[in-house]
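Is this the right way to post C-alpha cells for a design question? Let me know if I should format differently. Anyway, here goes:
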C-alpha cells in the first residue's frame, strides 16, 4: 500500500517564504529596487505605503536574503537598499508574471464580471446591474 504525499502542503517549508515574497508590499519594493535606493526614495515611489509597513517589508526582505541594507557614511547617516543576487534572480520570473497579468487583465476582468453576474443571478437584468458589477470588480 502506497501513501501519496500532498505536493502542495499548506504547512510545508516553502509556504511562509512564498507568502512573504508574494505579498503586496514585498513585490512592489523589489520592483522599485531596480537600482540601489535610500529609504525615503523607496517610500516616495510607492503610493500609500506607510513608514512602518515599509520598514517591516525591508527587514523581511533582508532577512530572506532578497535585499541588502548598506549604511552610508554620510551626515546624518543614510541607509541604502539594493537587490542581492538572490533577489535579482527573482526579477525575471516576476517580470514575466507581471507582463502576463497586464496582457490578460481585460480578459480576467470580463470573466470576473460574468462570474459575478451568474453568482448574483443577474443574467437577465439590465445593463445598469452589469455596470455596477464591473465597477465593483475594478475597485476590488
Amino acid at each position: 500500500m502506497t501513501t501519496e504525499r500532498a505536493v502542495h502542503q499548506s504547512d510545508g517549508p516553502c509556504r511562509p517564504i512564498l507568502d512573504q515574497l508574494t505579498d503586496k508590499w514585498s513585490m512592489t519594493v523589489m520592483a522599485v529596487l531596480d537600482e540601489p535606493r535610500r529609504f525615503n526614495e523607496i517610500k516616495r515611489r510607492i503610493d500609500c505605503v506607510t513608514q512602518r509597513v515599509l520598514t517591516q517589508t525591508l527587514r523581511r526582505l533582508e532577512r530572506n536574503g532578497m535585499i541588502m541594507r548598506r549604511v552610508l557614511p554620510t551626515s546624518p547617516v543614510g541607509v541604502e537598499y539594493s537587490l542581492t543576487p538572490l533577489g535579482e534572480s527573482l526579477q525575471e520570473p516576476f517580470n514575466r508574471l507581471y507582463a502576463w497579468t497586464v496582457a490578460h487583465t481585460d480578459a480576467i476582468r470580463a470573466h470576473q464580471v460574468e462570474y459575478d453576474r451568474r453568482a448574483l443571478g443577474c443574467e437577465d437584468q439590465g445593463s445598469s446591474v452589469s455596470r455596477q458589477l464591473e465597477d465593483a470588480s475594478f475597485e476590488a
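Format looks fine. Someone answered above. Worth noting: The mean pLDDT is 86. The first strand starts at residue 37 and ends at 38.
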